């Protein structure tokens, strides 16, 4: 009796490519979904930073992230709607865990963790955009990646300049 229930997720996963719109390849649709997760994380982490930080550079960076990633997500959502690609409304579980961890910090510990997370997150997003540029099939989705890559690369540079962003070098006697 339990076996059919265990097979249900596999059946749904097999149908996922068919649920994508005919205008977007599965890989392009997955890119739009991943970009959404990234944007949602950047926005929500920045909102936490705005409420927790006492650092002017962190506050300015966080506000910049809210503004730019909201704009980026609006562009992703508009394209996904045109392509018939469903987007997640919530953070993926692994990003929610990171957000929860950040939310539990305060003071300098928060600022350092936020700065380091922004570096890592933007490095991953740069890779995501570069992969779409190289392997994307849908011209509109590739164009979106081309448009957003310089912005995200600039965010990475800005994140690397935040106080505490650099991982301390290990000292060996």
From TrEMBL:
Leader sequence residues: 1-26
Gene3D superfamilies: 1.20.1260.10
InterPro entries: DUF4142, Ferritin-like
Record-annotated DUF4142 domain positions: 28-162
Swiss-Prot/TrEMBL keywords: Signal
Highest taxon above the source species: Bacteria
Keyword Metal-binding: no
Protein known as: DUF4142 domain-containing protein
């Amino acid at each position: 009796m339990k076996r059919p229930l265990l097979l249900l997720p596999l059946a749904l996963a097999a149908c996922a490519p068919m649920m994508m719109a005919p205008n977007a390849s599965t890989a392009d649709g997955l890119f739009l979904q991943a970009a959404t997760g990234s944007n949602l994380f950047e926005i929500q982490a920045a909102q936490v930073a705005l409420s927790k930080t006492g650092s002017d550079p962190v506050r300015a960076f966080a506000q910049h992230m809210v503004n730019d990633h909201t704009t980026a997500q609006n562009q992703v959502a508009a394209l996904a709607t045109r392509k018939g690609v469903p987007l997640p409304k919530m953070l993926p579980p692994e990003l929610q865990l990171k957000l929860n961890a950040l939310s539990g910090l305060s003071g300098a510990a928060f600022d350092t963790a936020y700065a380091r997370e922004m570096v890592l997150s933007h490095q991953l997003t740069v890779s995501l955009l570069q992969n779409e540029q190289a392997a994307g099939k849908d011209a509109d989705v590739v164009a979106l990646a081309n448009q957003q890559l310089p912005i995200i690369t600039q965010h990475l540079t800005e994140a690397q300049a935040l106080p505490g962003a650099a991982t301390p070098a290990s000292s060996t006697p």
